[in-house]
Amino acid sequence: MTTAANGHETLSLRGVIARVFLPFALGYFLSYLFRSVNAVIAPYLREDVGLTAGDLGLLTSAYFLAFAAAQLPIGLALDRLGPRKVEGVLLIFAAIGAGLFAVADSVGALVAARALIGLGVAACLMAALKAMTQWFPLDKLPVVNGIVVASGGVGALAATAPTEWAVEAIGWRPVFGVLALATVAAAVILWAVVPDRKRPADVPEETLPQALGKLGVIFKSRAFWRVAPAVAMNQGGFMAIQGLWAGPWLRDVAGLPKGEAATVLLFIAVAMVCGQIGIGLIAERLGRLGVSTLTVVAVCMAGFIGTEVLVAVGWTAAPLPLWMAFGFLGTVGILCYAVLSRQFSTALAGRSNTSVNLTMFIAAFAFQWGMGAIIDLWPADAEGRYPAEAYGAAIGAVVVLQVAAWVWLILPRRQS
């Protein structure tokens, strides 16, 4: 069996998996591990560096700010240079950032290192999705993209109890040293293993002004602006909470010790993997029955917002099922990349995906930092724990914005 979508090369399905899917999946695994790891190491950072909730929010969200700033240039680079070259170079910056994080001893140094990590992994998902559009047919993208994103869920899983065990055994600084070496290895694999996809003969090479002009087409599209606000609010909130504030909530509101909180975070990651694969499969099956992908997105987003409401009100009767539902439903945003892939040509896949990514990561930065600032409005107790009301106010503010964006998504309108 071979694939020859959107180019001249052919590879067997096994070859595509080994030489395309797995190297990009490894990169996204590391990206999500970096994104989520602070939820586990937060108490160690508080103790070693003396961080407040606001400091912790700024430090962790610096990843998202650098990530967002890189999205549009990355989109142009992906469509012009290809995913292998772009991600292979940027991962070296992530490795440098991880190494600096391992030796940083001040808030400023940690923020700078975290931002460098964010820049370095900024292309991991978009490069993978671009590669998938080059090697798989469009009707398979919801499932294929879901499996790619599931590799990130495995990274989130690794950032929970396994990371807690590693930090307890050797300390958080050596853990980041190991991550730096792993990131260098991932960059080498991308350069050595992944084949470049030739430009189809019927797609002329663009000049830079032409490329920028087509970026403008995306931002003028009503189809883009129907989806982007909901993705930004929903996924931005999900990343802000899952990547940082879920851990402190479990300790401060639910009263769980570090080890038990890390275990719940692990199950959230398991639920994420299930959601990243399962929601894509559900969307594909329902699509055969005439149910649109946008309908699936709207229903799952409504359910996700419901889980956040329960978290905001401090419902602790069954934290594990609640947070697993949060993890499963919070992955629905991946479907929106497939939606946009149908609205724009394959040649614009990198730019359309990174454009929506830009809005999403700006929201994630604002939410993660802003939630820390809101939580800091309440005094911490002698053990550094914040009250449930502080988390309720922070998460409630996110929910209000998500509901507004969800209403915008489902409003009836003419086809664009």
Automatic annotation (TrEMBL):
<feature type="transmembrane region" description="Helical">
    <location>
        <begin position="174"/>
        <end position="194"/>
    </location>
</feature>
<keyword id="KW-0472">Membrane</keyword>
<dbReference type="InterPro" id="IPR050189">
    <property type="entry name" value="MFS_Efflux_Transporters"/>
</dbReference>
<keyword id="KW-1003">Cell membrane</keyword>
<dbReference type="InterPro" id="IPR011701">
    <property type="entry name" value="MFS"/>
</dbReference>
<feature type="transmembrane region" description="Helical">
    <location>
        <begin position="261"/>
        <end position="282"/>
    </location>
</feature>
<feature type="transmembrane region" description="Helical">
    <location>
        <begin position="56"/>
        <end position="76"/>
    </location>
</feature>
<feature type="transmembrane region" description="Helical">
    <location>
        <begin position="223"/>
        <end position="241"/>
    </location>
</feature>
<dbReference type="GO" id="GO:0022857">
    <property type="term" value="F:transmembrane transporter activity"/>
</dbReference>
<feature type="domain" description="Major facilitator superfamily (MFS) profile">
    <location>
        <begin position="20"/>
        <end position="415"/>
    </location>
</feature>
<keyword id="KW-0812">Transmembrane</keyword>
<feature type="transmembrane region" description="Helical">
    <location>
        <begin position="20"/>
        <end position="44"/>
    </location>
</feature>
<feature type="transmembrane region" description="Helical">
    <location>
        <begin position="322"/>
        <end position="340"/>
    </location>
</feature>
<dbReference type="GO" id="GO:0005886">
    <property type="term" value="C:plasma membrane"/>
</dbReference>
<feature type="transmembrane region" description="Helical">
    <location>
        <begin position="141"/>
        <end position="162"/>
    </location>
</feature>
<dbReference type="InterPro" id="IPR036259">
    <property type="entry name" value="MFS_trans_sf"/>
</dbReference>
<feature type="transmembrane region" description="Helical">
    <location>
        <begin position="88"/>
        <end position="104"/>
    </location>
</feature>
<dbReference type="Pfam" id="PF07690">
    <property type="entry name" value="MFS_1"/>
</dbReference>
<keyword id="KW-1133">Transmembrane helix</keyword>
<feature type="transmembrane region" description="Helical">
    <location>
        <begin position="110"/>
        <end position="129"/>
    </location>
</feature>
<feature type="transmembrane region" description="Helical">
    <location>
        <begin position="390"/>
        <end position="411"/>
    </location>
</feature>
<feature type="transmembrane region" description="Helical">
    <location>
        <begin position="360"/>
        <end position="378"/>
    </location>
</feature>
<feature type="transmembrane region" description="Helical">
    <location>
        <begin position="294"/>
        <end position="316"/>
    </location>
</feature>
<protein>
    <submittedName>
        <fullName>Major facilitator superfamily</fullName>
    </submittedName>
</protein>
<dbReference type="InterPro" id="IPR020846">
    <property type="entry name" value="MFS_dom"/>
</dbReference>
